Amino acid sequence: MFRYLKYRLELFKLRKILSKEENELEHALENAKRAGYDDGTLSFLEQQNEETENWIRFHQTQYLSSICDALIIPMPENTESGEYYFEFNFDDLEGDRRILTKRGMHVARTRIREEKKIRREAFGFWVSMIIGVIGAFIGLISTLKK
User: Fold this and answer.
1) Residue 105: what pLDDT?
2) Among positive and negative, which fits the CA dihedral 92, 95, 99, 101?
3) Buried (b) or exposed (e) across 101-119, using 16+ Cβ within 10 A?
4) Which pLDDT tens digit goes with each residue over 40-62?
């Protein structure tokens, strides 16, 4: 639960930053149309916007990875075509980081849902078995008392 709350808080902060950057980009586009285009400022703002979007995807990838680790299921495999991952460098000491694509996130979420469903069904089976045995035991005791 703590992991989920931390994840949601980080996404909230990043989406707030993304919204601010999108507004800045929108105002810069309006100003550029009025005064003539300034490609340097616009490209910088677009790059900053893309970097924030990739930070959001990176945090989503980290969250899905932590859930997969907790459920002991594999993350999607990286293929040569880059179908499930892409690499992005945030210009920090970590270097390139692997981030799930939309297709990769879909595969990871599907695996998580399937695993949770299997665990829920197994738990439901044992709960119903225990309740059935308790009911049978109570029925047996009630017939023996008569």
Assistant:
1) 94
2) positive
3) beebbebbeebbeebeeee
4) 777 788 888 899 999 999 999 99
Q: What are residue 96's DSSP bridge partners? A: 89
| pTM metric for this prediction | 0.77
Of 110, 102, 98, whose CA–CA distance to 74 is shortest?
Answer: 110
On whether the CB atoms of residues 116 and 71 are closer than 8 A, the answer is: yes
Type of residue found at 134: I
Asked if 7 and 59 count as a contact pair (C-beta separation under 8 A), the reply is yes
Tell me what the mean pLDDT of segment 134-146 comes to.
89
Burial zone of 22 (CB within 10 Å; 0-12 exposed, 13-18 middle, 19+ buried): middle
Alpha-carbon separation of residue 117 from 7, 16, 72, 103, 114 (angstroms): 23, 34, 14, 21, 5
- Please state the φ and ψ torsions of residue 5, each to the nearest 5 degrees: -65, -40
